[in-house]
Amino acid sequence: MANAASYKVQPQSAAVLRGQAVTLPCTFSGLTGEDVVVWEGPPDFRIISMDTKVTAGYGRHFVIGDRTAGEYNLQIRGVTLGDAGGYRCSTPSVPAAPNAVLSVIVPLAKPPEIIGGKRPTPVGQRLLLTCSSQGGYPPPTLSWLNGTKLLKRGKTPRNQDMKQTSLDFVINKVKKWDNGNNLTCVADQGLQGVVRPMTSSKIVSVSYPPTVTVPESSKRAKEGDLVNLTCVVDSNPPAVVTWRKLGGALNQGVTDRGQTLSLPKVSRHDSGIYQCNADNEISPPGMGTVSLDVLYQSWIDPSLNSKVSVMYGQDGFLLECSASGNPTPRVRWRRKDTSLYWDNPLRFHRVRYDVEGTYQCVATNEGFPATTRDTYVDVVGRPYILQRSTTFTVRRGDTARLSCEIVSDPVPKTIQWAWRDVQGLESALSGGENGVEITEELILGGKLSILSINGITEGWKGTYMCKGTNMFGTDQREFRLEVTGSPHTLVIVVGISVMVAVMAAVAAIFVFFFRKKWLGDDRKSDTTSVTVSRPMPPPPGYNKNKLDQLGSLEIKDLDGLIEIHEMNGTLKPRPPPRVDKEWTAIGLSYPAGRSSAAAQSEMDAVQISGRAEMFCYL
């Protein structure tokens, strides 16, 4: 039983074009000399061959292959439709394998034909198209497609001997959008590996009235530009397009090119509404309009002053710029040579010295360069001290340094310093007396004065005042000074502690009497070293006139704040000092009735390397 015969290759179904050759495989293994291989086929599974011997009447049939390898392949040459059907390869000792089916194909002689739709179909009417195919075996299945979209598929013909098949496609009411659709009829015999489907196409034509679409319903152009006005017309058959200007006539030089009207050099007089009309004799005609707006560059009213003066501390100061153009320009302000913009009018909620400078009114409209006009804002007024009144502490023997920074226009000639001691007595301070030094220097927009006191003692405690004055008024700030212990006290205490510890150890050796006397002497010496200190310098002399003068000053510490519209906290550089303006300057023109206000900034006090310094930054 191990050598029993069996199929090595069973017969396989195949499809072949009429007139070509085809081979049906069949291979056994384990055949004996007594086994006979038989091929049967159409009609009615008649015996075609036994082993390699072919039955009479099958002159186009041959058994081929290596017999020793068990190959009994059936080859049919010049295949005809009569060769189509089932085939069986078998031997008595082996159960028969499933039958193989041979399909014989006769290709279509020509593509299918589409009947109908030779003339344009009016929109809203019925369109009938018929696809017809003749010949072919097996008969083809017909389908309608729009591009790759399947619209309709016919039934597979049951009668294999049909000479003609057909399939209708109907659009009950054609629409404008159906125009130009590419409808395809496909005839498919279902054996794409052997024969390809055949197709025919038809472009649908629908007649409809004009529809006008305006790509740009409004258009802008600068004077002198070339302008093309366009109407897009959709119609079938094509429409005739004409142009006219509503409320006027077309200017000479205008070129009418159907859907496009060309204006070579427009002027502001060409502004208006233009209408295009399209007619293809199918009602209703189409119509569209285009609005043309001719632009010209903006300009700024020359009445804007090139320089304006404003009082420091003034509230609600406005600077307005008037401009016109087409389109209406956008008017903004910026500080010259910067890119930070503010809306018009330029608004100062409270004027401060650092707003002084050149500002530009900038007018811009689409399609044109920006137009600018400069205005210099000159801020004048009383002095303003940047430092805030505060209290700070200095160690005894160190140097106290007080800074007083004043901005104003004009700049004060000098900055005055005064001192009020703990008993309330006031006196003026000047450099070169009792270790007092006063230095002054010009800074951007004002003056800086520094008061230095060397070798601070308890006698210098109190309140210090700096004051600046010009033709518009006075500003004053107070700083309270506290004095703490000497910086050498810690070193002395540590030294004495070490000395006492050493002497206590040595004293234990001596008798009580000598130890008591030695320690008594040592305490006197130690007390003397601890109490030694630097002599206190005499306080400055009391000046009654200066005290009365300082007592009559009006000391203010109001918060000055500049708020420029949309400034977003951005600081602008302070203008240079107006050193050319003395406090006695005359001939200046200032607005009347301007109110003044002080501003307030932060001040830090820091003690470095035994010195106390106060600095303030706006």
TrEMBL record:
Subcellular location(s) of the protein: Membrane
SUPFAM superfamilies in UniProt: Immunoglobulin (SSF48726)
Keyword Transmembrane helix assigned: yes
Topological type in the membrane: Single-pass type I membrane protein
One cellular component (GO) term of this entry: membrane
InterPro entries found in the cross-reference section: CD80_C2-set (IPR013162), Cell_adhesion_signaling (IPR051275), Ig-like_dom (IPR007110), Ig-like_dom_sf (IPR036179), Ig-like_fold (IPR013783), Ig_sub (IPR003599), Ig_sub2 (IPR003598), Immunoglobulin_dom (IPR013151)
Membrane-crossing segments per the record: 490-514
Keywords from the named record: Disulfide bond, Glycoprotein, Immunoglobulin domain, Membrane, Transmembrane, Transmembrane helix
Residue numbers spanned by region Disordered: 523-545
Domain (Ig-like) ranges: 5-103, 112-205, 210-293, 302-378, 383-484
Organism domain of life: Eukaryota
Main location: membrane
Any Pfam family matching the protein: C2-set_2
Protein name, per record: Ig-like domain-containing protein
Natural source organism: Branchiostoma floridae
